[in-house]
Give the backbone structure.
Amino acid sequence: MTQPGVEPDRIDVNDPAACALWAKKLDSTEDQLRDAVAKVGDKAADVEMHLKGSHSTTNADRVRELGGS
């Protein structure tokens, strides 16, 4: 169940907890998430498409490439 007035498909970058959750869900950094929202709006589907189109590998892939876990 969502909080009153909060749409589940909208990303509120002014809410630190929501921003962190969406960043994790979309496998991006919070800065990447904020940048995407600034460019395409706060609709989760639009942000996801923007993020996926902006890099061909996921952040997890890059961490592995760089020797992280």
The chain is about 55% helix and 0% strand.
